[in-house]
């Protein structure tokens, strides 16, 4: 089945994140970050059209954060879902504190900040509740029990329905979940980034917490559309913060992508669809949120929900991209990652 056929005829379907505090969402979500910052220039009208098309396709799990823009991405998402709020499972995040001019203040998990950040996000989004509220990064200076305790107060107040963490360690996940049920962990996971399989994914499944992989296409490289010269000025992937996109590392990683492309061609799907299908095949508790700001790529990503991988397909992908084969760290600075 080609991706055009898939996006026109195959329902996206749903999956459930978490078992103690379950949230049913679309099988694929939409990461909205790049509509406002980090991946080159954006266009608001195009972004809104992309969100509207997502809802029409059944991609109703939308992901944003207060720090994207900063603040402008929440306003964009809020304006796009006005009049369609009931169709959406809305996720946003707090914790990466920034000033309106973009200055990064640091990671903030203090209870008073949690409360203020939530109220500000609700106002920018134009909604009366957030379906899934994540701590974007773990504050090493604030006990996780204090941060999640404040998040739990938001649930009790009706401002938030479900709680999540992002880039949290197994120990932090356990302590947070003991304070209040955690519905989902958002972390990077793809054919190119698999370190969570050792300790984090087993803890999630032990506790009944869903997984929301961000960058499931390796920040776009697994689509096969990225080259050494295709990124536009201002794209953060051109900075030292993303070592996988530079020099010899990029060349080595593109060679891996070429192998994925060969397997995709044999199945009459795109490389990105095959990579997303691999993530989806890792379990019904996994809901990737590929980001895009264009309808064309949204439709392509949505087609991945119709791609079925056989055991032979999965084995071939494992051989094409062995775990640990990717060159370069996922971030140049890993200090914000809770370990």
TrEMBL record:
Which keywords fit this entry according to its UniProt record? Answer: Oxidoreductase
Which superkingdom is the protein from?
A: Bacteria
Q: Which GO terms describe its cellular component?
A: cytoplasm
UniProt GO MF annotations: oxidoreductase activity
Concerning Pfam families, the annotation shows: Aldo_ket_red
Q: Where is the NADP-dependent oxidoreductase domain?
A: 28-320
Q: What is this protein called?
A: Predicted oxidoreductase
| Organism, as annotated | Sanguibacter gelidistatuariae
